[in-house]
Write a structure and sequence with these properties.
about 140 residues, about 20% strand, Rossmann fold, two-stranded antiparallel ribbon, alpha/beta, single chain, about 35% helix
């Protein structure tokens, strides 16, 4: 797991495509705000939510599952409860994602260990919307 700020910054600087699992179409939800922020920073963000599949959130078509996304996924951002994170991490491993980012309060050490064993970078209990400005990350938009 990226243990220090330099590793987290490097991860955020190499990521381009993010699958945001647990995306919401409700502007008052944290996942909506984080998705809007990541899009504004120049990342390609693919919302994932089986209940909203086929619709759009912030102009981006919603996928039902990670397996429905074509092309490489650099990071899977997990906006699910900790008890559901393991299933998302296993799906991220299955599709060959480059990394898994578990949001603030999302903690699953066993899932993190599985992801690391499969070669994925893992960040847990952090938020990219907080880390990008705090670390001075050079985002795709610059």
């Amino acid at each position: 797991m990226p243990a220090d700020d330099a590793e987290v910054k490097a991860l955020l600087e190499r990521v381009r495509t993010i699958a945001l699992v647990g995306a919401s179409d409700r502007p008052d939800r944290p996942s909506h705000g984080v998705m809007a922020y990541l899009l504004a920073q120049g990342y390609r963000v693919i919302p994932v939510n089986p209940q909203l599949a086929g619709r759009e959130i912030l102009g981006q078509r919603v996928a039902a599952a990670l397996s429905d996304i074509e092309g490489p996924i650099d990071m899977v951002d997990v906006f699910r409860r900790s008890d559901a994170a393991g299933e998302v991490v296993d799906a991220a491993i299955a599709v060959g994602a480059g990394s898994v980012w578990m949001q603030l309060g999302v903690i699953d050490a066993a899932a993190a260990a599985r992801a690391e064993a499969a070669g994925l970078a893992v960040v847990m209990d952090r938020c990219p919307r907080i880390e990008i400005p705090r670390l001075g990350v050079a985002t795709p938009r610059g």
